[in-house]
Design the sequence.
């Protein structure tokens, strides 16, 4: 009885002492014989009421991609990769979504009340929309991934964040570009659009009218809240399944034109090889095993759920296959949920590890029948002589091998 | 009755005005003015139709290259700065200009693309501040440094710039026509 009172007094004292802190120490045992409650509590705060944050024990974070620190000393942001190894579903949290920039960017700090979208060029009615007006138009909500052309694994990388962290997946809400184009009235001879953002270089991309009219989306919402500044607040374009740079952020202007404009973002894609040009456009079928992946440690032999993500720029994921013996035998993985077009799709595979050294791989087959290749298959396709380095042209969609050593450690097995 | 007679033409006029500005399904958004479009539109097609009035020479561009701070990042000669090199690699005369490196004023198939790049993307931190005359001169200077033009007094403007023959004019790969539900490259199973 008295000890209970003391505990309570102690608790209140400590609570007062830690009023501005995060955690509060609770009673460590119970006289009733029930299991003790949590050792600490999170102190309520206006901030936590208004906008929640994750547990202090969760430290998952993005990292600069490709060895260039971000932000730099001037505050410019460069490429940053998402921690896929910490993710268990298909939605990338907005705060962890990968980021790519055209040349390093200061993030535009845009007041949505002042932001406008103009559509002009080869149209009957040039139009300017406020954000509120765009939100009045019929909307769609769709899951789509975005992937950077730089999402290219090599043998020096260790974790899946390094090998595959330049892709992310979100639920987007916005207006179909086709809705806007129909409102503006596309003229005869209009074959392309040029989409342009607000950032310093006014990054602009040419998109074929066939894509613009098909499923290209002008998104103002991402995972249920406004698109974040790093993703193009207040308005970004999504050209589902096209390489990242086509998904213009901070979108302000769309010009309807009669030809490919070879503008700022397009110039980076310029090549003299028609194969590279074609393969650096619509992303191929791709997948990666995330659990387990490079840098992880299997604690013991026995059951593991091997799981990962699969996607394709050509449509829905039709099938995912997994091998645990380096490609000798392939088995169908289980697809979790209903695959969406141009969206990350979760797959899983039941596996018993017997403690021997082995190699895990996954491969994606999409609804068009395109098959994710191994590096060796790519090499054979181009008749690369043995011993010569195999270069996957365009977007790299080759299979990622993970080698499990007999001590349970997991390693990138790209040669 | 008189009121009704008066109001009828007004109503028609109003209807016509709406029709001209916004014959759209949803009637959302407004028509930009011609000035607004001109102010916003910085796109330059490969053949340079939208190039503005103005002119410049490589000779003037060489001065601007120093004055505008280009040399600070790209190096005094455009070859030795912290920013990308702007002069073709020193490899002699090549049959395939792609061997000169990823250097816009030699690799780009169109001179207008060089103009567009400088106009929207340079100088770092002061993007969009160059006047058309300055962009013409800087474009001319970079073309001159790469031996695309050989006369540093040659005047480049909206008529002459698009006529410059770039070495890669016909030496680049168009992206294939894109259609929904189409594999990304015919004959490529991956």
Sequence:
């Amino acid at each position: 009885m008295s000890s209970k009172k003391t505990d309570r007094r102690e608790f209140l004292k400590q609570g007062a002492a830690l009023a501005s802190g995060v955690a509060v120490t609770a009673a460590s045992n119970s006289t009733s014989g029930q299991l003790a409650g949590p050792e600490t509590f999170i102190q309520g705060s206006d901030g936590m009421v208004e906008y929640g944050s994750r547990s202090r024990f969760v430290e998952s974070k993005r990292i600069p991609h490709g060895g260039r620190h971000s932000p730099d000393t001037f505050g410019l942001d460069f490429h940053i990769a998402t921690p896929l190894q910490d993710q268990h579903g298909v939605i990338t949290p907005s705060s962890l979504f990968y980021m790519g920039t055209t040349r390093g960017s200061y993030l535009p700090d845009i007041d949505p009340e002042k932001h406008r979208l103009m559509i002009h060029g080869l149209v009957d009615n040039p139009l300017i929309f406020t954000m509120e007006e765009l939100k009045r138009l019929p909307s769609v909500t769709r899951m789509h991934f975005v992937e950077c052309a730089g999402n290219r694994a090599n043998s020096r990388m260790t974790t899946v964040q390094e090998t595959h962290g330049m892709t992310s997946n979100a639920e987007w809400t916005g207006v179909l570009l086709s809705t806007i184009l129909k409102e503006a009235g596309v003229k005869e001879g209009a074959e392309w659009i040029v989409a342009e953002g607000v950032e310093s270089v006014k990054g602009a991309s040419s998109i074929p009218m066939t894509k613009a009219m098909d499923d290209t989306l002008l998104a103002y919402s991402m995972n249920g809240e406004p698109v974040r500044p790093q993703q193009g607040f207040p308005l970004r374009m999504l050209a589902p399944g096209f390489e990242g740079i086509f998904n213009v952020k901070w979108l302000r202007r769309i010009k309807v034109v009669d030809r490919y404009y070879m503008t700022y973002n397009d110039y980076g894609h310029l090549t003299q090889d028609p194969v590279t040009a074609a393969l650096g456009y619509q992303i191929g079928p791709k997948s990666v095993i995330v659990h387990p992946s490079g840098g992880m440690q299997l604690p013991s032999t026995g059951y593991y759920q091997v799981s990962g993500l699969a996607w394709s720029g050509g449509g829905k994921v039709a099938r995912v296959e997994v091998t645990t013996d380096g490609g000798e035998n392939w088995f169908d993985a289980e697809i979790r949920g209903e695959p969406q077009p141009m969206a990350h799709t979760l797959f899983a595979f039941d596996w018993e590890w017997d403690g021997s050294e082995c190699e895990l791989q996954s491969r994606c087959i999409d609804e068009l029948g395109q098959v994710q290749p191994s590096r060796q298959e790519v090499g054979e396709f181009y008749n690369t002589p043995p011993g010569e380095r195999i270069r996957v042209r365009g977007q790299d969609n080759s299979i990622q091998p993970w080698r499990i050593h007999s001590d349970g450690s997991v390693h990138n097995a790209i040669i | 009755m008189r009121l009704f007679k008066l109001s009828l033409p007004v109503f028609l006029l109003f209807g016509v005005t709406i029709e001209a500005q916004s014959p759209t399904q949803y009637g959302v958004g407004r028509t930009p003015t011609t000035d607004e479009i001109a102010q916003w539109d910085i796109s330059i097609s490969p053949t340079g139709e939208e190039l503005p009035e103005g002119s410049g020479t490589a000779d003037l561009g060489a001065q601007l290259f120093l004055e505008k701070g280009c040399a600070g990042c790209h190096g005094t000669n455009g070859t030795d700065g912290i920013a990308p090199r702007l002069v073709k690699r020193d490899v002699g005369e090549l049959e395939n200009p792609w061997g000169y490196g990823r250097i816009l004023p030699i690799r780009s198939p169109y001179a207008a693309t060089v103009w567009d790049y400088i106009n929207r993307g340079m100088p770092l931190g002061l993007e969009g501040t160059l006047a058309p005359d300055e962009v013409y001169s800087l474009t001319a200077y970079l073309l001159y440094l790469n031996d695309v033009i050989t006369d540093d007094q040659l005047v480049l403007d909206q008529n002459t710039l698009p006529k410059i023959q770039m070495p890669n004019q016909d030496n680049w790969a168009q992206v294939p026509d894109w259609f929904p539900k189409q594999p990304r490259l015919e004959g490529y199973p991956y």
